[in-house]
């Protein structure tokens, strides 16, 4: 398994992979995308979005045929050091709290999140998604 950050000029690789999943959010030019590849094929991906002075971990997906094989956990560990320089957030499904907790994310109340993230959270809740807001302090190493 190889982990690498895609070049900013190569969003097609991530877009092609995400097209195989239920994830439909657009990839911005400023997003950092890290992928896990097996024999040259992308099998998992995650985006790191920068908003103001924080990072938001988004679009963490593993190919449906490769779930429950530890690939997502390995990818999460591979991006952990990239989050160290800024406070970071994610809005995972509630059942994934322990997964993101493995690298130091902790569930926080909605009121503790930045305004832009509270709006995003409200939209997910309105869409009947069972998500939570999680926070990881800059410099945190688990």
Describe the structure.
It is a single chain. Helix content is 25%, strand content 30%. With 142 residues, the chain is an alpha+beta fold. It has a seven-stranded mixed sheet with strand order 1-2-3-4-5-7-6, sandwiched between helices. Helix 2 (71-80) links the parallel strand 4 and strand 5. The model has no long low-confidence stretch (mean pLDDT 88).
Structure in a nutshell:
By secondary structure, the protein is of the alpha+beta class.
Measured between the Cα atoms of the first and last residue, the distance is 22 Å
**Overall pLDDT confidence:** 88
- Residues in β-strands, percent: 25-35%
Uncertain regions spanning at least 5 consecutive residues: none
How many DSSP helices?
4
The share of residues in helices is 10-25%
Order of helices and strands: EHEEEHEHEHE
Give the overall form. Answer: globular
Give the total of beta strands: 7
Radius of gyration: 14 Å
């Amino acid at each position: 398994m190889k982990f690498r950050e895609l070049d900013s000029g190569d969003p097609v690789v991530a877009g092609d992979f995400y097209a195989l999943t239920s994830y439909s959010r657009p990839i911005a030019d400023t997003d950092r995308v890290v992928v896990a590849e097996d024999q040259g094929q992308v099998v998992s991906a995650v985006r790191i979005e920068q908003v103001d002075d924080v990072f938001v971990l988004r679009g963490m997906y593993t190919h449906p045929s490769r779930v429950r094989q530890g690939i997502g956990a390995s990818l999460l560990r591979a991006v952990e050091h990239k989050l160290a320089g800024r406070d970071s957030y994610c809005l995972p499904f509630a059942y994934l709290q322990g997964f993101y907790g493995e690298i130091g994310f902790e569930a926080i109340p909605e009121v503790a999140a930045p305004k832009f993230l509270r709006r995003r959270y409200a939209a997910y809740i309105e869409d009947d998604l069972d998500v939570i807001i999680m926070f990881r302090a800059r410099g945190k190493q688990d």
